[in-house]
Each structure stands twice: as C-alpha cells, then as structure tokens.
Design goal:
- The protein is α+β, with helices and mostly antiparallel strands and about 170 residues long.
- The chain has one domain.
- It is about 25% helix and about 35% strand.
- Strand 5 and strand 6 form a beta hairpin.
- The relative contact order is 0.20.
Length: about 170
C-alpha cells in the first residue's frame, strides 16, 4: 500500500519490496524520472505523437532523422561541464509505436521504473496502491551500462531495437 503523500524518490523502493516483488525476485533498482526525452520519429521531444498529413510524411521523416542525428550528436558531443544538462532518461527507437516509446508515454509525477532479475516495469502509485503501467519479462530485453563524458548510463534495449537510457 502507498500513502497519499507518496514520493517516488523516497518511497518507491520500500513499496516495491513490501508487496510488488514476487517470491525470490531480486530488486536491482527503482528510478523516478519526472523528465523523459524522446528521440523517436513521429513523436515530439516529450513523447507526444505528432499528427502527420500524407503530403508531409516524407518531409517530416527527413526532418525527424536529421533532428535525431543532431540530438544524438549534441548528446555525445557537448561538454558535461558547460553544455546543456543531460536528460535523466532518453527513449530511443525507429518508429512511433516502438516498445520503448509505448512503455514510457504514460510517465506521470507518481510513476517510476523498476528493474529486477526477472522483469523491467513502469509502475504508478495511486489510490493507496501500486499499479503496473507496463512490464517486460527479462528474456525480452537486454541490459548494459556505458560511460560517456564522465556520466554513466544504464541501457534497456527491447527486441525491436528501441530502448531507454537511464542516467545514473
């Protein structure tokens, strides 16, 4: 159970440990991510699906590819000390309905991410309980870590090539 003053940064891990984990399941981490950046064609920077008319589709795809390339270059080229702050979470994929974007689009102030040895999930605390927004079994995603410009990221990648990077 969760209380009305549930704070995901403070309360997510105890709430997950006290009732959401399955017997024998080991918790790796919980992450509250109020801001998510999307780098997915057909979606805006904050994940909203963009309306596309047929005559603009080709142009928008070209712009999305160019914008994605510039954003990725900015992400990896800017200096940590002087550049814009890195997003806490970056969703990437090659199509609007990719698995990562679909899972992340329901992000809310009281939602958070959970990684265990058996699954990766997006949860929300409401009405005194934890609700699963989405859940992926461990055999349907890959996990890795990488460091770039003194920052460490944890990456979850799904079978469709889409994924989510979490800044540590």
């Amino acid at each position: 159970m969760t209380s009305p003053d549930f704070d995901p940064r403070r309360d997510a891990e105890p709430a997950v440990r006290s009732g959401w984990l399955r017997p024998g399941e080991r918790l790796a981490w919980t992450r509250h991510t109020p801001t998510i950046t999307f780098q997915v064609p057909g979606r805006g920077y904050r994940g909203k699906v963009l309306k596309q008319s047929p005559w603009r589709t080709a142009g928008r795809r070209a712009l999305a590819v160019a914008d994605g390339a510039v954003t990725v270059l900015d992400f990896f080229a800017s200096d940590v000390s002087s550049g814009p702050s890195r997003p806490e979470v970056r969703v990437f994929g090659t199509r609007t309905g990719c698995r990562a974007a679909t899972l992340a689009e329901a992000n809310a102030p009281r939602s958070f991410w959970v990684l265990t040895d058996q699954r990766f999930a997006h949860l929300r605390a409401d009405d005194g309980a934890l609700h699963t927004i989405g859940e992926i079994p461990s055999d349907e995603f890959g996990y890795s870590e990488f460091t770039h410009k003194r920052l460490t990221y944890e990456r979850i990648v799904f079978g469709d090539g889409s994924g989510i990077d979490f800044r540590r």
